[in-house]
Write a structure and sequence with these properties.
Layout: E1 6-12, E2 17-23, E3 28-36, E4 43-49, E5 58-62, H1 67-80, E6 90-97, E7 108-109, H2 112-120, H3 129-142, E8 148-152, H4 162-165, H5 171-176, H6 186-199, E9 208-214, E10 218-224, E11 227-231, H7 253-260, H8 266-275, H9 278-283, H10 288-296, H11 300-324, E12 329-333, H12 334-339, H13 341-348, H14 360-364, E13 371-372, E14 381-384, H15 389-408
Parallel strand pairs: 1-6, 6-8, 9-12, 12-14
Antiparallel strand pairs: 1-2, 2-3, 3-4, 4-5, 7-8, 9-10, 10-11, 13-14
Helix pairs in contact: 1-3, 10-11, 11-13
The structure holds adenosine-5'-diphosphate.
Length: 409
């Protein structure tokens, strides 16, 4: 029998499932899609065949009651393209799992014990881990014979030293409740830091990189020789940079103040800081395109929101420069990082003394390729490196499955 080479990547949210089917012989995508509004009456499935130049996008609307029904619908779409999940060519299903705590430092083949541990982490990831678990259980029921691999958002950050990972609070209290900085977006930080090294023609071990993952959620990381030494998200994905709807860093006493003086409940404060803050809280929009458009029209609130966003970003670049001591590259990635040239320009402006500069012409180029946007004379490369979390999950899952197969021989 030939070795199976396909990996299905699943990213299960509370009411959505995103998926991609990849062929690991050449990292090509065979199909991708999304099921939204699961359990909400009018669910939507969008499926795009991608093999051999791709086919027409198919959209289906109608009720999809739960994740099991969603995955069944996905399996039917894939089967219609000749890519059924019962295919012997499927080597593994790779699952994005948000929180792996301190235990999961590597991608892991899922068994009952692993499921129990992911469950045990629900208190520190109440929104994400239950949804991830549902996706995994559903996929396991569908193909119980197939290796299912968990790839954790936190794993890349488990190399952080205690000096970066611990909050300066009472140690017993912190340990009793597993309160520490875990970091998120790790799959993206791992992929982008490695691709940045490749762009520089170096091995990951040879370079120090500051990665700025700027999507709706946003985080920065300091990566020394391929290992994460600091990152901006903490116990939860609320800490750090200004994001689309999240505040990022804030004086924790603001929360007491809101409770004691404004009479807000914990849940209201949670919603305020996670959903009604960041760019949306500052100016009513969280899409950087819209914010730039408003700035061009002279909108002052949008301009202030942009300035606050960039100010925080610049502070983290400076902080991680100091943490690393020597920086070879600053890499921008995700929706804002890959597309918003004005953010890149403003974040790097004034940092010439640190060897950082952006070439206006190179910065203006639109491309899906990883590229350098700093002038040739600059000591530190500034790069735009498109992230690809699905490919990274597929690669890690496939490598693990091959590894296990060869050690079982
Ligand atoms: P998510 O965190 O949801 O995965 P993405 O990485 O897809 O987010 O980033 C989404 C954000 O990227 C949008 O909210 C928007 O602010 C920004 N964005 C996307 N395209 C552009 C663009 N062409 N110009 C500026 N910003 C963009």
């Amino acid at each position: 029998m030939t070795t199976p080479t396909r990996v299905l990547v699943l990213n299960s949210g509370s009411s959505s499932v995103k998926y991609q089917l990849l062929d690991m012989r050449d990292d090509s995508r065979l199909a991708q899609g999304l099921v939204e509004r699961i359990g909400e009456g009018t669910s939507r499935l969008v499926h795009t065949p991608l093999q051999g130049g791709g086919g027409r996008k198919r959209e289906k609307n109608g009720p999809i009651a739960d994740h099991a029904a969603a995955l069944k619908a996905v399996a039917e779409e894939l089967a219609a393209d000749g890519l059924g999940l019962d295919s012997p060519e499927l080597a593994a299903i790779g699952h994005r799992v948000v929180h792996g705590g301190l235990r999961f430092t590597q991608p892991t083949v899922i068994d009952e014990e692993v499921l129990a541990e992911i469950e045990r982490l629900v208190p520190v990831a109440p929104l994400h881990n239950p949804a991830n678990l549902t996706g995994i259980r559903t996929a396991m029921a569908l193909r119980p014979d197939l290796p299912q691999v968990a790839v954790f958002d936190t794993a890349f950050h488990t190399t952080m030293p205690e000096s970066a990972a611990r909050y300066a609070i009472d140690v017993e209290t912190a340990d009793a409740h597993r309160i520490r900085r875990y970091g998120f977006h790790g799959t993206s930080h791992a992929y982008v830091s490695r691709e940045t090294a490749r762009l520089l023609g170096k091995e990951p071990e040879e370079v120090n990189v500051i990665v700025l993952h700027l999507g709706n959620g946003a985080s920065a990381s300091a990566v020394r020789g391929g290992r994460c030494v600091d990152t901006s998200m903490g116990l939860t994905p609320l800490e750090g940079l200004v994001m689309g709807t999240r505040s990022g860093d804030i004086d924790p006493a603001v929360t007491f103040h809101l409770k004691r003086v404004a009479g807000m409940s914990e849940d209201e404060i949670d919603v305020l800081l996670n959903k009604r803050s960041g760019l949306v809280g500052l100016c009513g929009d969280n899409d950087m395109r819209e914010i730039r458009r408003r700035i061009d029209e002279g909108d002052e609130r949008a301009a202030l929101a942009f300035d606050i966003y960039v100010h925080r970003l610049k502070k983290y670049i400076g902080a991680y420069y100091a943490v690393l001591g020597r920086v070879d590259a600053v890499a921008f990635t995700a929706g804002v990082g890959e597309n918003a040239a004005p953010v890149r320009e403003a974040a790097i402006a004034g940092l010439e003394e640190l060897g950082l500069a952006v070439d206006a012409d190179l910065n203006a180029v639109r491309s899906d390729e990883a590229r350098i946007i700093s002038p040739v004379y600059a000591r530190v490369a500034v790069a735009v490196v498109p992230t690809d979390e699905e490919l990274e999950i597929a690669r890690q899952s496939y490598a693990l499955v091959l590894d296990e197969a060869s050690s079982n021989e």
